[in-house]
Amino acid sequence: MIKSRFILFGFLALTFFSCKSDEEKVEEAPTESFRNEVAATEVRVAKAEVKSFDYLINATGKLEASSQVTAIIEQAGFLIELNVKEGQSVNKGEVIARLDPTEAQLRLDKAEISLRNANAEYESMKMGYETIFSSGDEERKKTIDEQLKAKSGLFMAEVELKEAQLNRERCELKAPISGRIADLKFKEGSLVSASQELCEILGSGQLTLKVKVLESDISLISSNQKAEVYAVSDSQNAIEGRVVGMNPKVDENGLVQVSIAINSSRNLLPGMNARAIIRAPQNNSLVVPKDALVYRSGRAVVFSIENNESKWNYVEVGKDNGEEVEILEGVEAGSTVITSNNLQLAHQAPVQIIKE
């Protein structure tokens, strides 16, 4: 009986140590064997390159006429003739409106009569100084002549005539520039006061887009820099433009106004909203395709490839132009970076490059 117990105990012990040995073998199986069993992730790749990089500055604003002038009615009167309507094109110097000239013409007639009377008085007074005027003393003759013109009222009459002529001319309102009529404020027959606005005349030349740019980007913008403009009415087709001016002042929101001249005005009107993309070339920048950049726990990551495995690289990102991203730190120039299937990729995961 005792012998049977020893045999049973020996059998159980042998079984226990045998099972333990098998467990240790499983635990000691190399990690590499599991990695080989995982299918390699197919990825597309690109090179991290040092090259010229176009940083895109996006801004929105409104289109304005390059030249815009307010036509002012300079004196009061009845608007008896209005030769334009909104949207109509006019040429510089063209008469666009007329005021009733009756009163202005009357003042002009009176001024002409006053001048004739003053001139007659001057000639009459001059006859009393025949000796002086027939002498060779030019300086004395000049002095007496000016005194007689002043006493006769000739000087004042000449000024009043010029003033009356100017008022008569102001009865006709002429276009100060060539362009199109906008914001017409009066109708024919209206009684208007002096210095009132009749309309706006929008220059028929180039349009200008006024946009607001962050003050941090203003150092990247210079005169004559290339820009692309997209009007809200035609957001698919770019219109070529160039920077023509910058306001030398930052507003309370940290923005600077930039003016962009547009080479085409097709289907565009002043006041339209538009978007501008200003290209700011950056030389010798290390860039990768934007698809190579992913974010993990709020940090920027780029995966590179080493020995057919993915390598996790934390990076510091610079400027972004929508297609490429500037890398300031974290990836070496010439590195092969992964641009697809990288959203859930892990560090040291096996990868296979897709051949295009």
UniProtKB/TrEMBL annotation:
GO CC entries: efflux pump complex
Organism domain of life: Bacteria
Domain YknX-like C-terminal permuted SH3-like, residue spans: 286-351
PROSITE patterns per the UniProt record, alphabetical: PROKAR_LIPOPROTEIN (PS51257)
InterPro entries: MdtA-like_BSH, RND_pump_MFP, YknX-like_C
Ranges where the Multidrug resistance protein MdtA-like barrel-sandwich hybrid domain occurs: 77-198
Listed GO MF terms: efflux transmembrane transporter activity
PANTHER family: HLYD FAMILY SECRETION PROTEIN, MULTIDRUG RESISTANCE PROTEIN MDTA
Family of this protein: Belongs to the membrane fusion protein (MFP) (TC 8.A.1) family.
Listed NCBIfam families: RND_mfp
Protein name: RND family efflux transporter MFP subunit
Native species: Algoriphagus iocasae
